[in-house]
Amino acid sequence: MTSGEGITVFLFIAILGMLGRYPYVIDAALYPLGGGPIIGGKRRREERPPMPSDWMSPFVKAQMDRYESLEALTLTRNRAGIVILSHIQVSESERGNGIGNQIMRSLLELADAHGDTVALTPSNQFGRNVRRLKSWYRSFGFRPNTGRRRDCSTWEAMIRPPQS
Fold first, then answer.
1. How far apart are CA 9 and CA 6, in angstroms?
2. Helix or strand holding residue 106 (H, E)
3. CA dihedral of residues 48, 52, 53, 57 (deg, nearest 10)
4. 5 pLDDT exceeds 70?
5. How many angstroms separate the CA atoms of 17 and 10, rounded?
6. What residues contact residue 12 under an 8 Å CB cut-off, 6+ apart?
7. pLDDT (mean) for 124-151
8. Which residue did the predictor score with more confidence, 70 or 18?
């Protein structure tokens, strides 16, 4: 086959893929290295990895039942599968008694058991000192999500990969 025939075949396959036929063929033709398209066309929506079992809802319910002073605990999962701790709040009268430490230890044990990364962004929304919060999160193995070690699958400021 001459190079002219090869280009003709490539273009024919590319056109079939752009018309919606043979989407897997077009992926092989247009995205040989997994990057963006070499020539135009719609990129097929990438398959997401299956989500792990949902352990978060039962965990939150159990913690809310266990600690009356726990006012809020919010866990979500982003599209990349990272667990986001967006809100943990112990009543002001019970702060400093180790309830937050116990909840955080339990959360991280469960996340580690399921192989989940946990991410968060410390906030002064409830009158807390952000520097002190960052120090507290570092004591649990969280690190800043910046620089060369940045995990771009989340916007959160601190991240903790699963520990073994």
1. 5
2. helix 99-114
3. -90
4. no
5. 11
6. none
7. 91
8. 70
Helices (H) and strands (E) in the chain, counts: 5, 5
pLDDT higher than threshold 70 for residue 73: yes
Backbone angles phi, psi at 120, to 5 degrees: -160, 165
Residues in CB range of 97: below 8 A, 6 or more apart = none
Q: Is the pLDDT of residue 147 over 60?
A: yes
Containing 64, the helix (H) or strand (E) segment is: helix 56-66
Task: Output 54 or 55, whichever has higher pLDDT.
Answer: 55
Q: What percent of the chain has pLDDT over 90?
A: 54
110: nearest Cα among 53, 150, 152:
53
User: How far is the C-alpha of 55 from the C-alpha of 154, rounded, in Å?
Assistant: 20
Give Cα separations from 15 to 7, 18, 29, 126 (angstroms): 12, 5, 10, 56
How many residues does the structure list for the chain? Answer: 164
Q: Which residue has the higher pLDDT, 45 or 152?
A: 152
pLDDT at 72 over 70: yes
Full residue range of the structural domain in which residue 15 is found: 1-47
Instruction: Let me know whether 149 and 131 are in one domain.
Output: yes
**Same-domain check for residues 27 and 81:** no
Please check whether residues 102 and 35 belong to one and the same domain.
no
